[in-house]
């Protein structure tokens, strides 16, 4: 075993990443206060090749220069848009055929690795660092995705929790469709509706 150099690690070029098929997962990042957490989630979203990041409420955007410190260029390849109202985004995505999942601790948890095939395409709502996902968004969701924990604390940093959940979700989707665990084209995927003309 030896560590691979950056040049030896298989990965997409920035231009290929922008045009590559995405996995049928979108993310709604609602009222996340730390711009560094948002940047971290951009980097994770690029790693998972998600379709789109919807930045809602007071969540910062890539227009904030400090986001670039943790996104490290991912903000240039992950499609994103900014919206004031998260509920309106949820309603729009549901109308377009998406299952709505919240990354939250509830009385009806689903491990991300056990997500049903019928849940894709999936929109995942990630909430505030302290208060979590807003109650109205939890009430509107179809499922709650929960990362099991075995220690004293009952919560993780929002960027860490998102990274763990997204890794499980993408691997689950790829296993369901017999896709390899490596970068490359997605030859089988859930049929997705066309996005609206305004790009949201």
Describe the structure.
By secondary structure, the protein is an alpha/beta fold. Helix content is 30%, strand content 15%. α2 (35-48) packs parallel to α6 (158-176). Mean pLDDT is 89; it is low at 196-200.
Q: Order of helices and strands, N to C?
A: HEHEHEHEEEHEH
Distance between the termini: 44 Å
Strand order of the biggest β-sheet: 3-2-1-6-4-7-5
The main sheet comes to:
7 strands, parallel
Low-confidence stretches: 196-200
Helices and strands: which structural class? alpha/beta
Q: Number of DSSP helices?
A: 6
* Shape verdict: globular
Query: How many strand elements?
Result: 7
Radius of gyration: 16 Å
Mean residue pLDDT: 89
% residues in beta strands: 15-25%
Q: Helical content, roughly? A: 25-40%
Which descriptors would you attach to this protein?
200 residues, alpha/beta, 6 helices, 7-stranded parallel β-sheet
Topology, element by element:
Elements: H1 14-19, E1 25-30, H2 35-48, E2 52-56, H3 68-71, E3 80-83, H4 86-95, E4 99-103, E5 109-110, E6 122-126, H5 135-140, E7 143-145, H6 158-176
Can I get a quick summary?
This protein has 200 residues and is an alpha/beta fold. The protein has 6 helices and 7 strands. The model is unreliable at 196-200 (pLDDT under 50).
